[in-house]
Design brief:
The complex is a heterodimer of chains A (230) and B (225). Chain A has one domain: MetI-like fold, CATH 1.10.3720. The termini of chain A are far apart. Chain A is globular and about 70 Å long. Chain A is built from eight helices and no strands. Chain B has a single domain, classed as Orthogonal Bundle (MetI-like fold), CATH 1.10.3720. Chain B starts with a helix and ends in a 5-residue tail after the last helix. The chains are: A mainly alpha (230), B mainly alpha (225). The interface between A and B is large, with 37 and 41 residues.
Chain lengths: 230, 225
Amino acid sequence: MELLAFGKTGWGDELFYATLMTVAVSVTAMIFGFLFALIFTPLKLSKYKTLNFVGNFYTTVIRGVPELLVIYLLFFGGSGAVMYVASIFGYYEYIEINAFITGAVAIGIISGAYSTEVFRGAIQSIDNGQFEAAKVLGISKFVQFYKIILPQMLRLAIPNLSNVWQITLKDTSLISVTGLVEIMRQSYIAAGSTRDPLFFYSFAAVLYLLLTYISMKLINKLEVKYSRGY
Amino acid sequence: MDFDLMITSFPKLLGATVVTLKLLSASLFFGLFLGLFFAILRLNKNIFVNKFAYGYSYVFRGTPLLVQIFIIYFGLGQIEYLRSTVLWVVLKEPYWCAIIAFTLNTGAYTSEILRSAFQTIKPGIIEAGKSLGISNKIIFYKIQIPIAIRQSLPAYGNEIILMMKGTSLASTVTLMDLTGVAKYIISTTFKPIEVFIVAGGIYLFMTFIIHNVIKYLEKKYSFQQ
């Protein structure tokens, strides 16, 4: 137990901050994912073949390639790409992107592909009559989306989004390869310096279980809220 | 774009694909039996057996695969007693550690898929079997299992693809699978995009094949025929 003490003697406080880091990366990645989904869902539902292709390409490639490979691509290629863009604007210094941003973007791209599929499914399952009724009533596209489609969509999407959240949370463990100190990395460091990998990795597993358990409870509440009237 | 690098790295990556496929097929093979075993336990009426199977699937689905591999590869070696047993022959090899971790992981997901497939079988079908005087054992092997397999094909196809992506984690325990070799080439040449295209292409090709095989099986075993 003294291994988990807070302060200088134990690893309790380090692991606590690492847990916060995992949550922070997961939330950021989830938000990035929503942004990607916001761009690619309309593309996938578009009438135009080329836009359709772009949307399908994104979800197929990202869901068919291991997460680790995507992370390596961004980890090794990320700063190069940013430096290339900067060089167009006449900035030639070395730019280093921090591990948090790289990790959050990489996991965000992955989580975005899953979110896109969830949103596409949810929109497609809304009855066509709803769109037509809104049109007949002369409701603007904007209000139609926010007041009619979105509330119905969320009810259908929340159970699936909760799966996406679980996947995102677990995928953040892979960012440890880039050196960002989250649960997995901190356990690795602790295991290395105390020579007690069994304890620390098991403890990491417990922390992840705790996170998934708590988030399940919270999401269940949301689910109840959005399914009022059904 | 460095096309020469893409061409020279292709055979190396293709060789590493063999390792990936070996890991995948071994863990799917053992995982299917483990999954079936735990799915049957889940359907058991005894509450302890039931909870044990639920606990297994909950723990392995609630934690990242990376943690599971690390516990088995780095963690189990720490137990002195294990080092003196026959198990150590298996556990000191990263290859077998990876397969054990993947098997336990895919077993948890498979057990959930099979359980829900068993539960969607209409009671009428089993009752019909009973009223025809077929024994419980035959009902299970000849009626429930074939229907459950058909029901779970789409979900199991997804699981195979997820597992294929999961095998990339073997590279974290020093195995040179497709991702491991890709990372090695990237870190020696610093050309991530070219290597990503080739390695990603191989992974996508495998996804494509798995997807189509499952689709074919679904069609073959559909009820309509």
